[in-house]
Specification:
The protein is built from seven helices and two strands. By secondary structure, it is mostly helical. A two-stranded antiparallel ribbon has the order 1-2. The chain starts with 24 loop residues before the first helix and ends in a 7-residue tail after the last strand.
């Protein structure tokens, strides 16, 4: 009867001998960026908005910018403030501001939770979630018969005056200001306005008057 012996704890060796080197911050950052981009590409609400150009003729570019904005938000927000409700609110606000879509199916919460959980695993050197997302994305692209590419646009910091003037010269005349997408900063997260409570109006005869939305 064969017997097995427990292995001593310690770092695992690699096939060629020695031990694996620690992952570089650049590698981890790249995997997190890919994770975000894949989650957005697989988000039905955003995909529908892009396919129907609800964000205007630059809807696809807005999605690329969206991924970069989330990456910037995650890297600039303290972990103590970074939770699912915070990221969900950010996702909902961008969908509303950039695509004029009110996502009320709780999918933003699911996407936010998946991004934060995947990011945590990436920081620990576990990229299996990214590989699974890539597999799902490739399968969907194959079913749709599309030769798509995963794209991500970095959200840069403050630009210099010279850079701003050059960008204006290149973009002048290509599209109107209403179609421009602001790519150089993350939108500020603002609180949603609270809905006012509608008080029923009772007439002199004691009947309750129904108040329509327009009259509110």
């Amino acid at each position: 009867m064969p017997t097995t012996s427990a292995q001593e704890p310690g770092p695992k060796s690699v096939p060629n001998g020695g031990f694996p080197l620690p992952l570089s911050p650049e590698k981890i950052s790249a995997e997190i960026d890919l994770l975000i981009t894949l989650h957005l590409s697989l988000w039905p609400a955003l995909t529908l908005s892009v396919n129907n150009s609800l964000g205007g003729p630059l809807s696809s570019q807005k999605r690329d910018w969206f991924a970069g904005a989330i990456s910037s938000l995650l890297s600039s927000t303290p972990d103590s403030d970074l939770d699912v409700p915070y990221l969900e609110e950010f996702l909902l606000q961008v969908m509303n501001d950039e695509f004029e879509v009110n996502v009320d199916d709780e999918s933003a919460e699911e996407v936010g939770r998946a991004i934060l959980e995947g990011r945590r695993r990436c920081l620990e050197g576990d990229f299996r979630a990214v590989k699974e997302l890539a597999r799902r994305w490739k399968k969907r692209a194959g079913e749709n018969g599309r030769n798509e590419e995963v794209r991500w646009q970095e959200v840069e910091g403050e630009e210099t005056e010279g850079d701003s003037e050059e960008d204006e010269d290149e973009d002048e005349g290509e599209h109107s200001e209403a179609e421009d997408v602001e790519m150089n900063r993350v939108p500020d997260l603002v609180a949603r306005p609270k809905r006012e409570k509608v008080v029923p109006k009772v007439d002199e005869e004691g009947f309750t008057e129904v108040i329509g939305k327009k009259r509110r």
